[in-house]
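Co-fold these.
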Amino acid sequence: MHFSHTRARIIRSGEKLFARYGISNVTIRQIAKESGVNSSTIYYYYQSKEDLFEHIVNHIELVFGEDFSIAVEKNDPLEQVSELCWLFFDKYNQNINLVTLFLDERIKSNQNERVKKTIRKVENTINEALEKILDNCRDLGYLKSDLSNLVYIKMIFGILVETILFQKRSGSLLKNENQTHQFLTFRNEAIHLIKGILMVK
Amino acid sequence: MHFSHTRARIIRSGEKLFARYGISNVTIRQIAKESGVNSSTIYYYYQSKEDLFEHIVNHIELVFGEDFSIAVEKNDPLEQVSELCWLFFDKYNQNINLVTLFLDERIKSNQNERVKKTIRKVENTINEALEKILDNCRDLGYLKSDLSNLVYIKMIFGILVETILFQKRSGSLLKNENQTHQFLTFRNEAIHLIKGILMVK
Amino acid sequence: MHFSHTRARIIRSGEKLFARYGISNVTIRQIAKESGVNSSTIYYYYQSKEDLFEHIVNHIELVFGEDFSIAVEKNDPLEQVSELCWLFFDKYNQNINLVTLFLDERIKSNQNERVKKTIRKVENTINEALEKILDNCRDLGYLKSDLSNLVYIKMIFGILVETILFQKRSGSLLKNENQTHQFLTFRNEAIHLIKGILMVK
Amino acid sequence: MHFSHTRARIIRSGEKLFARYGISNVTIRQIAKESGVNSSTIYYYYQSKEDLFEHIVNHIELVFGEDFSIAVEKNDPLEQVSELCWLFFDKYNQNINLVTLFLDERIKSNQNERVKKTIRKVENTINEALEKILDNCRDLGYLKSDLSNLVYIKMIFGILVETILFQKRSGSLLKNENQTHQFLTFRNEAIHLIKGILMVK
DNA sequence: AATGAATGAGGATTCATTCAT
DNA sequence: CATGAATGAATCCTCATTCAT
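Predicted complex below.
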């Protein structure tokens, strides 16, 4: 079988549990139970708990992979930043566990080198896209301040992360329509704010 | 003395280790070793590992406690926000471990209720101060956008957190003068950016 | 073919690994890897790890089987003992793994009954040959001491074993010519010593 | 407590079980059960199973430590060798487990470096004593053969080991008087044989 | 106030073995 | 004949916690 069913089940359960509780608070047996296999089976596919974790983290790279450069293809830089933000929010909606994992691991200090690398890579992908967008803004006469791109990047990233955290902590996205609406509104506000900031001549 | 020397040593070691490795990656014995006491001694002062952790997290409340309202005492709301940001950065400089712990715990989803409460309380303290500042801005004719205070709060908080994370990941603050200078510059930029955003009429 | 290629490969690998590391330090998977088959395949041929081990140990009997009686066919008992010793050394040269296994198992106390039996049988084969040789010596007027044959047997066996252990621990036989020569010399000395002892009138 | 009772109990049980079954066939739980402590307690005193094993093996050095040089203090080299042999047999009587362990480990090929070292050291102790005795023999005009000391040493060692193995495999020493007597006789014979060999002019 | 000794519960990992194909 | 997938039992080891002193 090319893409083992069991493998997929293990990964999915791992994703969920690691995201929720962190690597050291999840036992192999829990993952085994959640994925309906024997714990030895996990060792048949992955060399160790750490190995499984790394495989899961690698998925993050896949999720955040190419797409952000697509945003830059839009004509207007303000459209571009808007697109990038929506892409980011979409990723979250579609891979809540993975994105949660990403946010968690991003601020941990001691961790597996390979995990660290993946996190940096994902951040870089986003940063580079933002860098281009900011340059485009400047070309159009926007962003006349003498502040560095870096501050703007951190600001945009910061507000995106806070938006997601706000949502995450308010409970899962789909609880009811009202809430969904509320979140959509808030995301819209966030994007408007960012655009407003960049647009200043 | 209410606050025995031993107690203090234990707390300080716990702070350091918990901040660096997270609660589940630190053993009572490690804390005992770091603080030069026997692990049983820790149980003499604290009922359990969790209890010790809670006590440490409570320190965060002390650190972030009152001061932010001081910021609001300034005349100009732009001065107020500036003051608040510097306060935040100062807290970090003076309590790197505790602030790190705060940032870590802030994004974890599963955790001790009391820890959760403390984290919320600290966030609220900051948020309330920001809320007031934003209102003051509006009173002065700034911030003419129809965006909610909440987005502005998230934005400001986001950029503050990212600034600290940037610094934290670039290595300890005091490695050399150049670096210190670099960070100071960046912090300045961040504050300028925030003020610029709020100032818009 | 009675004796399939795969079977042979498994046995050979088992021999090597069991001799080197002992039964409990070798896993079925190691043997599978070494012999280039799947571990399930081993279970196709042998009922269990123990079963495989027994089959391998049985080889020892084949190796040490008949030949020692050949020694007794020589005319002179001193020639006989010399022949027996050389036979023993030759066995070692040609089946280092098996002989190593024999020496190992010989001194272990807890073991599979069938293994024990095989070891005893091999020892008996040698002992009986030696017994005959000693009787022949006495018939010729040698060995006038009132010591029992048993002590002589143990002595001869002891020196043979020590000679092999000496060589085994000094490294593999064929490292270089010098070493080979050195071992040959030592073996010669050992046999001379034994003959000298038996020859005493 | 200087010499923890628990420690002693663990060591004794380990000695017994390791000697009987070999390190990899004994579980920590078995040792715990045999010594009447919890298996965690073993880890309180020893870092790992291997560590415990090393500590036990170190005892071998203590047992075989100095005494063999005492043998050399006798006047006559034949007395000396006799003394040395009896010392060896006595060690066995008093520390059956440890000596068994020594014999076992002596022929294993793959093993812990520290264990290997201890085994070599013990062998050296005996070999050096034998070397001196052989030199003394030569000084007195004995041992006129042109064979090296090494062969003689191996021969003596071989017969001693075989004698012990013989006894070990025949069952524990003290089963009944008859058997005791039988073993004593055999040991006597072995020593006589050795002396006879050395005495040859 | 402080500690050394001891433990029970639980965790990661290994491994011989089975079974469907 | 041969194998990939799967498992249960067992193993080493860790760690928070307790208790007598």
